[in-house]
Amino acid sequence: MPQVQNSSASSWLQIQSILNSVNHILIFLVAAFFFVLAKSLDFKETAMHMFMTGIGFHVLMAQALMSHYKVNPITRWISHKNKSRYHGLLQLVGGVMVLLGGLGKFSQKDVHFNTWHGRFGVAATFGCAASIVGGLVNFYQPKIVLKKLPPSELRFRHNVFGLLTFTLGMVAIYLGYYSKFFTRHVDNEFIPALMLTTTLVYFLTIIGPTGSLLTKLKYRRQKQQQQ
Which residues contact 64 (CB under 8 A, 6 or more apart)? Predict the structure, then answer.
């Protein structure tokens, strides 16, 4: 039985490794597409908004969420502490890009938030700002915060809120493919491929963080039962 379990675990790790490699390829392709599209439109107005928020969420934050994933070929060889730094740097840069891209759109007079894309975009932007603050608190763990919450609870809440914010951002991007901007500037027959790619990137990205969250949740319940 132990040999069967070890074999199953090894096979699952190999599958995860393949899926993670596929995810990196998809993320690279999306980044290239967003850049080429925005550049063709001189990075003006909505094109800049699309580029900043798309790269911020779809590329940098996706990579940040996978930084502690043990099958990630980019980070698997570095220490846990450096993985945390890598994660924090990508989250910070990605978060700033999302905020700038979102605020740039908010400042335009013709913006209306009566679409689902706009509503999810606003929620994702504010969630991103809160995630940056929460990430800094989780990384530096100031004493005033630790008096109320233990480090394990901080990490758990950071994990939950990070996944929620990433979900909001990816949903906003997915809904953005229905917008006039995309239907006007992108071949309509190509848009379903973008939707599929975004869906795949989302689900492949959250495999690691979801596993980590479930482990933290199990530990959290054990602590609560002991109290």
Answer: 86, 87, 88, 90, 91, 94
